[in-house]
Structure formats: C-alpha cells, structure tokens
Amino acid sequence: MSRRSFSCLAALLALTALLVAPALARQDPASGQQQPTFRAGVKLVRVDVSVTGKNDEPVVDLQASDFEVEEDGTRQRVDTLQFVRLGSEPAREESLQIRSVYHGEAEAARDDVRTYVIFLDDYHVAKVPAIVMPLRYALSTFVDRLEPTDLVAIVDPLTPLSAMRFTRSKAELKEIINQFRGRMGEVFPVRSVVEEAQLQSRNIARVRAQVTLTALAAVASRLGGLKEGRKTIVFVSQGPSTFMMSPDGDIEEDLKTAIDAANRGNV
User: Fold this and answer.
1) pLDDT for residue 97
2) Of 86, 120, 139, which residue is a domain's last?
3) C-alpha–C-alpha distance, residues 87 and 262, integer Å
4) Is the domain of 117 the same as that of 48?
5) Domain stop point among 39, 68, 86
6) Is residue 117 within 8 Å of residue 223, measured between CB atoms?
7) pLDDT of 110-144, one tens digit each?
8) Pair 135, 64 in one domain
9) How far apart are CA 217 and CA 212, in angstroms?
10) What is the Cα–Cα distance from 44 to 26, expressed in whole angstroms?
C-alpha cells in the first residue's frame, strides 16, 4: 500500500523590530515631523503530516481549514495545503534507476520521494556477532520494506559528503549492510589518513566520538539543503560517550551541534 502525506505551510507573522530607530526614521514632508518606522517579516514554516483513518487508510480529502497549528500555545494560520502521494509506481521502470550522484540528489529533492541516510557508526558498535547479526537483520528488513521510489544512502563516520550516494537498489544496500562490522575499541588496521592522525591523540575514543558527531551534523545539514520536506537519518550505534568526567572535557557541545543541525534541516 502506498503512503501519502500532507504538507502544511503555517504562516508565522514575526515582528522583527518594534523600536523606533531615529537614524532610520522617515520624514513627513507635510508636517515636518518624523514618523516612526516599523519593520515586520512573514515566515512560512512547512509542517509534514500523515493522516490515516479506518484500517490505516490515508485520508485524502482534507482542506487547510481541517488543520490547527500552534507554536508555543499560540494558534497559527494555515495558508496552504498540498497533498503529496508517496511510494506510487513510476510510469517507466528506468525512472527508478539512479544514473549518477547528481541524478540521485535531484530525485531526493522531490516532495513525493522519501529520503533516508543509514549512518553506520562502526566506531561505536562492538564487533560481536550477538550485536552485529541482529543489526544486519533489522537493517535488511528495513530495506525490504522500502517503497520503489524511496532513496537511501549508506555512510559511516569517515564518508565524505561528496561520496554520499543515493540509490534505489535493494541488492546494493544489502551488500553494504552484510559487510558491516563494528570497530568499537579497535585502532588497527588504520583506514585512512584521518585515522593516522587520530593515533597522535592520547584519547582516541574521545576523538572518534567527536568524528562521529561531526559527521552526523554534516549529513543532517546536507540533507537539509536537498529539500524542505522531512528527511530521515537511521543512526546505527551503541552511542558515543559524551565524556562528561573526562579531564579533556566533555563533548556535549558536539552532540548539541548535531541535534541543532537535524532540527534546522527538518531531519
């Protein structure tokens, strides 16, 4: 069954300046008196919603007046409503195939395409069959349930944004997933010059936690630049420590940066 969603644009009127600025005051030629200058701005905020009824069937005949949007307890006006059909079969099979990085990003920017990034945080997943095997199974099951038009990219903490490639090939995704192995606590073999530089640190675990969170923030920002609609990061990790008791200081600011990037990018 295909999924559907609605997108609402809530118009939020934000008064950006209420004080009179003498240097910017406007002169009234008739009275010779200065008139106060007020500046205001209108901000449109997109909100993605899914509405289902009996038997989980989507409700497709809603109007903007059927929705209420509040911000900090204040009701906002819903200006427009757009119905977006997700997961529908394309007219031609070849339209599913991603031919290049640029084609993948163009497809990801479409409102009727769901976009996912699976972030395999191998730095913080133990190389233990009891952990890795269930993860592989869960991710493979997730891939099996994707709609034909869904797009997925798989990255790890060392994947450059330029190498983040979206695909619709379930076979390709499963091949990467089945090769996934945790590296928690492992220093060798060194995978790149980035990891060679990590060897100079007295606290490699802390550095790798920062690398993971920095990469996570970068991916969230990149997704935010593709389109306004909702994007999803599937973060596969046993969780990097925030090192709250570390003599080198904690990395909570790095965690906050990643969360803020996700919020700004609607991820």
Assistant:
1) 87
2) 86
3) 24
4) no
5) 86
6) yes
7) 988 999 999 999 999 999 999 999 999 999 999 99
8) no
9) 9
10) 29
Question: Is the bond into 134 cis (omega within 30 degrees of 0)?
Answer: no
For residue 172, count CB atoms less than 10 angstroms from its CB and return exposed for 0-12, middle for 13-18, buried for 19 or more: middle
The total number of structural domains in the chain stands at: 2
Residues 77 and 170 in one domain: no
Exposure string (b/e) for 83-93, b if CB count within 10 Å is 16 or more?
A: ebebbeeeeee
Contact 9, 79 (CB under 8 A): yes
Are 93 and 9 in contact by the 8 Å Cβ rule? The answer is no
> Distance (Å, rounded) from C-alpha 259 to C-alpha 70?
22
Q: How many CB atoms sit inside 10 A of residue 232's CB?
A: 14
Q: Is the dihedral of CA 109, 102, 264, 208 positive or negative?
A: positive
CA atoms of 63 and 56, how far apart (whole Å): 19
Same domain for 153 and 248, yes or no, is yes
Residue 247's H or E segment, with its range, is: none
For residues 155 and 119, the answer to whether their CB atoms sit within 8 Å is yes
What pLDDT is stored for residue 51 in this prediction? Answer: 75
Shared-domain flag, residues 121 and 182 = yes
Whether residues 155 and 246 share a domain: the answer is yes
Tokens of 261: 């990037």
Query: Between residues 205 and 159, which one has the greater pLDDT?
Result: 159
Q: Are residues 78 and 97 in the same domain?
A: no
pTM of the model: 0.71
Residue 192 and residue 68 share a domain: no
State residue 228 phi and psi, 5-degree precision.
-75, -30
**Tokens read off for 123:** 């730095």
> Residue 63: which domain range?
3-86
